[in-house]
Design a protein that fits this description.
The complex is a heterodimer of chains A (400) and B (322).
Chain A (H helix, E strand, L loop, with lengths): L1 H19 L4 E7 L9 H17 L8 E7 L4 H14 L4 E4 L3 H15 L2 E4 L6 H4 L6 E3 L6 H12 L4 E7 L2 H16 L3 E8 L7 H7 L6 E5 L2 H14 L6 E3 L6 H7 L8 E6 L5 H14 L8 H18 L7 H9 L4 E3 L4 H9 L4 E3 L17 E8 L2 E8 L1
Parallel strand pairs in A: 1-2, 1-3, 3-4, 4-5, 6-7, 6-8, 8-9, 9-10, 11-12
Antiparallel strand pairs in A: 10-13, 13-14
Chain B lengths: L2 H31 L7 H16 L14 H23 L4 H21 L1 H4 L21 H25 L1 H11 L1 H6 L4 H27 L10 H14 L4 H22 L7 H22 L13 H10 L1
Helix pairs in contact in B: 1-6, 1-9, 1-10, 1-11, 2-3, 2-4, 2-9, 3-9, 6-7, 7-9, 10-11, 11-12
Classes of the chains: A alpha/beta (400), B mainly alpha (322).
Chain lengths: 400, 322
């Protein structure tokens, strides 16, 4: 008896939702809801839901409403693959937003979405491995790869007129990734690297390493490490020993702790790179205001912008393609995300829908960037150049 | 829902189920036959996965290996290295009584995980290994390749099942059950208890390594996230308990039914409005826990309990009586 009641209830639930969704279009989302990233998720879930809400308030998707179907990828490979399998095969979504962690994103992509031909847009994955992946143009992301900063830093250094540097980097994925890219880019652009040495984090003295680095008189020392770890110590000991007076750092080193330990005066010739937002971004401010009006809080949490943008882009791609046909998504996504075209931003669904209907080309400029995908599905993003100003840092230039 | 999609979901479901079935069979050898409480399954799984991945993946500067060897070589090597790891572990802690062995094996699995995360010259650390091939890669494109992989996985499941059954019926298996049920008695009749337990542990660990290798090939990508103890160690324990420890068919049934509960509940959770998605994921985990509680309470010795094979003595009596 009880069993049959449950069965009827389940059947009713399935039938009810099936009918309600007759003309609706599903957008898949892989979110690491439970698992190690759980604490990040609530604002991001709101961001994805908010994008879908904007779509539905602004006239809906295709001829019906947009429906977000969430798979719980748990920031681990097995659940990510399992959840992606269900989104692709059971829910038949034409496009997927997610996942968040690089590991679950790549596992879902290589095992499921790439073979099935479904486009996947990760708002947050930064793993350099995704750039070179043989993904048939199905995998996109909205944040630059970890390696990107190395490329841009090489440009910044050369623009400063420095031609000869020594490089030291901390031996982990952060340090190795950026250092290798910087080294290659700097040499290619005509710079000279006198030393390229890794070091272990959490040592007390780096004097012998610094002495090696100082040989053949480089103009500056590039330190790719965390200020709270080896970074501050290396800078301090290099100054104390009189080996270097000019330092170039990345976002790991650009920390108030460095100024506290070394002093602003000793860093007056040094400069730093770090990911930053575009100069004047009204889109972000507009989204944050609307987001907080809806959910009271959370707009400033990490990756809310990108998650909103990824969901919005997924919906735009479906609208542009004119149907939920997954084979049309690659072309549609590239068209709506990149220039040329009339610029639309967050919350502008009604405008975008009208433009698409009129057959006009659109270009989505999101809250977290403009998302001009390159051939690998990567974005460039913005890197700022910072100098020390009193006891904090000042951004003096933006590179792209 | 379109039937083609459902078919491919079923294929993926059975691939996962098959990999878990191998893990369950392996644990059954250790726990069901030998009474060894191994709580470090994820460790041997990881050793196997990384061995096969490093041997078969495309060359890369970010990690050791990338020898592009054929996949079967990788899988066999995975069994060997996981077995050797099991041997080293067993040498140290096989004499520990069951609950102490559990603690020691959790510790060892954790050590292995830390090595994998930190030794990035070997494993590329947390960024993982990409470009891991599947067997018969290139013969079939797209989703259909899953069907081919399904056949490979279940071929391995059947081989492992046959090996395990043979072991169970052999004199070796009988001795092992004697060791499990009454160690002192087994020792008293002159069996080398420690040697038997060591062999059991090594065989189980090697099979766990095979499962690890298969999952690395399935995902075509391997990172430490794939060796999460919740999903490997504890889920496999639940599967074996639900299926019936000591029974090889039970191990396979347990793996499939628990994975069905784990995976298919999400389809129902997805019927709820998306606003509930955060909550429904947690509710789903809660329901999975409740369902498993129910199965474990209702079927104490598993869905298919252990059935000792009739022994020679019984057969004789049968003949005389009947």
């Amino acid at each position: 008896m009880r069993k049959s009641v449950v069965m009827v209830a389940v059947a009713g639930l399935l039938a009810g939702t099936a009918m309600a969704q007759a003309a609706d279009t599903k957008i898949g989302a892989l979110m690491d809801v439970t698992g190690p990233l759980a604490s990040f998720i609530p604002p991001l879930m709101n961001a994805a839901n908010f994008a879908i809400k904007n779509v539905n308030d602004g006239g809906g998707l295709l001829d019906g409403k947009a429906v977000l179907v969430v798979g719980d990828s748990q920031a681990a490979s097995q659940p990510a693959v399992d959840a992606a399998t269900k989104l692709v095969n059971v829910e038949n979504v034409p496009i997927i937003m997610g996942a968040l962690a690089s590991g679950s994103t790549i596992a879902a992509a290589t095992a499921v979405t790439i073979p099935a031909g479904v486009v996947q847009i990760s708002p947050t994955a930064t793993s350099p491995a995704m750039t070179e992946m043989n993904d048939g143009d199905h995998l996109y992301r909205l944040v630059p790869s970890d390696n990107y900063q190395g490329d841009v830093l090489a440009k910044i250094v050369l623009a400063e007129g420095i031609k000869k540097v020594a490089i030291t980097y901390v031996n982990n994925d952060y340090g190795v990734g950026i250092a290798n890219t910087f080294n290659a880019a700097f040499k290619k652009a005509g710079g000279e690297v006198t030393a390229f040495e890794k070091h272990e984090d959490k040592k007390n003295s780096y004097r012998s390493e610094i002495a090696t680095l100082a040989k053949s008189s480089p103009e500056a020392l590039v330190v790719i490490a965390y200020a709270s770890g080896s970074g501050s110590k290396i800078v301090k000991q290099a100054i104390e020993g009189g080996f270097f007076s000019r330092f170039i750092g990345t976002d790991g080193l650009r920390d108030d702790q460095l100024i506290k330990e070394v002093g602003a005066d000793a860093l007056k010739d040094s400069f730093f790179s770090a990911p930053t937002s575009p100069d004047k971004n009204d889109a972000s401010a507009k989204l944050h205001e609307a987001f907080n009006a809806e959910y009271k809080e959370g707009a400033d949490k990490p990756f809310v912008d990108q998650t909103y943008d990824a969901t919005f882009l997924a919906a735009l791609a479906v609208e542009k393609a004119g149907s939920a046909d997954k084979t049309k998504m690659i072309q549609a996504l590239r068209e709506v995300a990149s220039a040329p075209g009339e610029v639309v931003g967050p919350l502008d669904w009604a405008k975008a829908k009208e433009l698409i209907k009129a057959g006009k080309d659109i270009n989505y400029e999101g809250a977290g960037g403009s998302y001009e995908f390159d051939a690998n599905g990567d974005v460039t993003g913005y890197i700022g150049k910072f100098i020390v100003d009193g006891d904090t840092y000042k951004q003096i230039e933006i590179f792209q | 829902m379109d039937p083609v999609g459902l078919f491919f979901y079923l294929v993926a479901f059975l691939i996962f189920g098959g990999i878990y079935a191998i893990l369950c069979l392996a644990l059954n050898v250790q726990w069901g036959y030998g009474g060894l409480f191994n709580a470090g399954i994820a460790g041997f799984f990881a050793v196997g996965a990384y061995t096969s991945a490093l041997l078969t993946a495309a060359p890369a500067q970010t990690h050791l290996g990338g020898y592009e060897l054929p996949v079967p070589v990788g899988i066999l090597a995975a069994a060997v290295t996981a077995g050797l790891t099991g041997w080293a572990v067993a040498k140290i802690c096989i004499r520990l009584k069951s609950d102490y062995l559990a603690m020691a094996s959790i510790g060892i699995a954790e050590i292995l995980r830390m090595v994998i995360v930190n030794e990035d010259w070997l494993t590329n650390g947390s960024l993982g290994i990409t470009n891991i091939p599947r067997p018969f890669d290139g013969f079939v494109q797209g989703r259909a390749a899953d069907i081919l992989f399904l056949l490979v996985v279940w071929a391995v499941v059947i081989i492992v099942y046959l090996i395990c059954n043979r072991l169970y019926d052999s004199p070796w298996g009988r001795t092992l059950r004697a060791v499990r049920d009454n160690e002192d008695a087994a020792r008293a009749v002159g069996k080398d208890v420690d040697a038997f337990r060591l062999q059991t542990f090594v065989i189980g660990a090697a099979l766990m390594g095979v499962a690890g290798a298969l999952s690395a090939h399935y995902f075509r990508f391997l990172s430490p996230e794939a060796t999460e103890p919740l999903l490997i160690t504890f889920l496999v324990w639940v599967m074996l308990m639900a299926g019936g420890s000591g029974n090889n068919k039970g191990a396979i049934v347990g793996a499939l039914s628990v994975w069905a509960i784990w995976s298919m509940t999400e389809i129902f959770a997805n019927r709820l409005p998306a606003e509930f998605a955060t909550r429904s994921s947690y509710i789903r985990m809660l329901l999975i826990g409740l369902l498993l509680q129910f199965v474990l309470q209702r079927y104490r010795s598993g869905l298919l309990p252990e059935r000792s094979p009739g022994n020679a003595f019984d057969k004789d009596t049968d003949k005389t009586n009947g």
